[in-house]
Amino acid sequence: MHSINAATREGNQARAVITFNKAVVPTRDHLYINLVDGTAKVGTDVETTVEVVFQNGNTVLETREVSLPLPPRNSMLMPSGTNVVFVNMDIVSDGTTEGQESFTLQAAAKAFKSDLQSDSIVIRAD
Q1: 96 contact partners, CB below 8 Å, separation of at least 6
Q2: What is the reported pTM?
Q3: Mind listing the pLDDT tens digit for each residue in 16-49?
């Protein structure tokens, strides 16, 4: 997993991309995603509803708007053929002058998170 636009400002959108070395199998492959507080607080500095875009190469297979955490075990089934997932996160503009903040996106492609990866998302100082 790696971030795209991982350093953003309040009021903008952060985007992360999750890539897989093979296309997923339907009814078996789950995507686990979660946002974790850092100096930026989930629900205060970053929205808990995210847009998840499932793709095979450049072809969009499905787009979902989901609220985190996802029940059960924070996971969802992925469409067949998915090999790239984009997670778009809205950063809240609160009008308060703040220094640089960050939070973490966690993601895994297995039901029990044995391949858990995480990436820090940075919100630049106001």
Answers
A1: 126
A2: 0.87
A3: 988 876 666 666 678 889 999 999 999 999 999 9
Contacts 24+ apart (CB under 8 A), 75-78: 75/30, 75/31, 75/32, 75/111, 76/30, 76/31, 76/52, 77/26, 77/27, 77/29, 77/30, 77/31, 78/24, 78/26, 78/29, 78/30, 78/31, 78/54, 78/109
Per-residue pLDDT of 67-111, as tens digits, reads 998 876 668 888 888 888 999 999 999 888 889 999 999 888 765
Q: Using CA atoms, how far apart are residues 100 and 77, in angstroms rounded to an integer?
A: 34
CA pseudo-torsion sign 15, 10, 107, 77: negative
Cα distance between residue 65 and residue 44, in whole Å: 18
State the pLDDT at residue 20: 75
